[in-house]
Each structure stands twice: as structure tokens, then as C-alpha cells.
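REQUEST FORM: STRUCTURE PREDICTION
Request ID: SP-0412
Submitted by: Lab K.M.
Chain count: 1
Length (residues): 224
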Amino acid sequence: MFNRIRRRVRRLIEPNAAAAAPRDTTVQLRLPSPYGGAPWLTATVAISATPRGQGEALRLRAHVDGALRLPAAGAERPRLALDAGASRGLIRQGRSAAAAVARNVIERLPAQPLEQLASKRWRTWLDVQLSTSPLDEGAQALMPEPLRGIYGGGLPRSGTGEPRIGVWSGPAGGRSGGVAQLVLLQLDERDLGRSRGRNGRSAFNLNASVAQVVEPLREDDERD
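STATUS: Completed
RESULT:
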């Protein structure tokens, strides 16, 4: 699987004859539950590279959704559905063995910390944009529109050579409650103390944001 991811990323960054066309790739990962049912973790990573004017724009987006769903204490813990007929096929045998190891490890962990961990759902969104195309607003031009309502005209500049960092946290606002956190980072040539080109535009621009929501796990939660 990791070799496949590496090949896809390599195709994005290596020059090719169709350099003027956008290049996109998406990878999806899933960590199944050893007890069956919804997976413990799902992740989607999307990478795109687009030539723009005198440079190129690269964007990486990722969404991770995790919930350690465990059978109720004292209840019979079903085995992963893959166990059935596991005598056929090396892949099926490997999955069955991995599920058995995971169950044995979990059953030996302290009950209270495990219950606290299993009572929450974590969702994380990552958005990184890098542009080497000259931009009038610098890194601010790459800020996603939903974040402009929080940070307005951008983050205040710090000392030379330092990125601009903004941190926000507050209630998640959903029906389940919980906590939401957001970190925003911006960096361009002005932050690095470099002189801009004759047109006054920044040819190095980076905007990165990470948002996370941690909320109580509901029985009817669906992955979105």
C-alpha cells in the first residue's frame, strides 16, 4: 500500500510532457475494527499540483475520522467477520491473525482509560497550500474562504524569519457537544525577510491549517 502511495506522489512531482495539465491523486486508508462493524479509523488524502503562470500550486488535503468502538463491558465480544473461512488465502489469514492480536492487547489494557478513549470521536482536517506563482496578497491569497470569517484580513506578522500562527479553540457546536480546535500557519517572502520582485508580489507562499473536533461518541454516529 505504501509503495502505491509513493508511486502516486512521485508521478505528481516528476516533470512530464503534459506539465501544463493539473495532476491529482487521492488515497484512502482504513483501519478495521477487530470486532467487526465500523472501522476504527478512516483517512482520505488528496494531493493536487497545478501549473499557474510563472510557478506552480501544490495542495494537500487530508481528513481523518477515528473512533475506538468497543463492545459493552461484560458483553460477548464478536470476532471479526474475516475470521470465518480464514483457512483459505494468505491475506485472509493475515487479517485474522492481526485482529486476534489486537483483541488480546485491548483485553489486557486498564479498563478505565480504555473506556474514556472509546467514548470519544476524533475528526481532523488538514489543508496545506503552497504556491510559487507570484501573488499580490502573498500567503493570505491562499486562505480558504471559510477561515476568512475567523481571521479576516490575515494573521499579524511576527519578527523576520518567523511564520504567522493563529490558534483558536471553542465549543464544537454540534448536538453532541465537544471541543473544536483550529491552527493556522502562513508564511511568504515578506515573513522571510526576502525582497519581492519588481512587481511587488511574493513568489513563495504557504498557507496551512489543521482543524480538529473531539466529541462524545454517539451510537448513531455516521462517518462523513
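NOTES: Strands lie at 23-31, 41-52, 55-67, 120-131, 164-171, 179-188, 205-216.
Reviewed by: T.R.
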